[in-house]
Fold:
Amino acid sequence: MADFNLFDAEEKTLEQAEELRHGMADAPAAIRDGLATLIDSYGRSVREQRRLVRVSDRLQAQLATVNHELGKRKAEAEQALDDLKSAQESLVQAEKLASLGALVGGVAHEINTPVGIALSCASHLADATQDIKKLFEADDIGVDDFKRYMATAMDTTSLILSNCERAAQLIRSFKQVAVDRTSSERRDFDLCAYIRETLASLGPHLRQAGHTVSIDCPGGITMTSYPGALSQVLSNFVMNSLVHGFEPGQIGEIRIEVDQVEPDQVRLTYADTGRGIPDQNRGRIFDPFFTTRRGIGGSGLGLHIVYNLVTGPLGGNVSVESPAKGGTAFVVTVPQVTASPTV
Amino acid sequence: MENLKIAATERSPEVDFDFEHGALSLRGESYPEDASTVFGPIFSALESFLATVGDREIRIDFDLTYFNSSSAKALMNMFQRLDHAAAAGARIKITWFFAPDDDTMKEFGEDFSEDLEHVAFNLIAIETAA
Structure:
């Protein structure tokens, strides 16, 4: 379109003005000079307009290029952010898998001992039974042989039983760690009444050693949450105090305090007067299989279960403190109404 | 006469001139490297069309989100040409669309309308799909 001209109208006006000037050749010099000046400045103005349009076009094109580049960079940055987020998610997932792996490894390790003992006892019993059978068939069995066999049978069966019991207990703990959050029941319950019920059910453990329990809980707090999980958390705290906190023979105190820092949040503080947790262990007590009593009854799962239940189904957080006056305090903060399970 | 339909490019607007129904529209952005390649065909088609319109009713929609200076000059020329046709009897209605938050486009519309005496000019704010 070679004939397209943005300043077509202006050029035509200039041509007409030029014709007008020719037509006015006889006019007085002042008018001719004036007209010539007007035409000249109009022409200059049109040329200036062309230049401005050209410069402005160029600037706008640059702006568009820059904007385009900016949009591209923004998209790239957003893509990078998305990638980063999904990488982060995979890392979290990997971390979970790794912790599950550690858990399974730990469970295998823990279960291996009682199962190994039970197995060797069973094998020893089988050998002894084979021997006594031979003597019996040869009609060569004496009272001493039989007494010895009876003693072996008593010892081995007792060991088999206790070790199988231990293995079963470990498997139960493991099932709690891997608690199925969707199947546990979520319902309304009175917090204080529920805490008292839970502590009452732990009564035998506590009374035996003469420990005292005080509960300071303002009435009328209705929770919509998982009572089973809360009860498990409290039980594990109590067992922790009994097994780790109190020295043998010590008559300990347990205090449970409930308050509401925020209207919809409940803070439960569990404190005992036991020996406390050494500084170097405080960061690890919620880790799975961290125990100071390996081989003498500690599985290292109790507080890990607490951590999983509080941060999982109960939707809150748990921390440990070492009060100045000694002992250990666990602070659990949970919402009064937990989120509905997302299935 | 034949309708003029040109798809939008990254730097030029979509042209949809339905001469048969007297409905013309320009939509999109306009900052071409060379204004004549974009506006040349538009002007020659418009010239031929306006020569035939008499007192017909013609609707022209402008829905532009961005244009450069030569496009602005071309638009000004276009409005001038339309105003002449309206002065000669054509019933021309121009609608200038702008996004509610785009004051620049609204002001351009107001500026352009100032020089128009014979066409009906409407300014309408619309939410764009994008």
Summary: The mean pLDDT of chain B is 92.
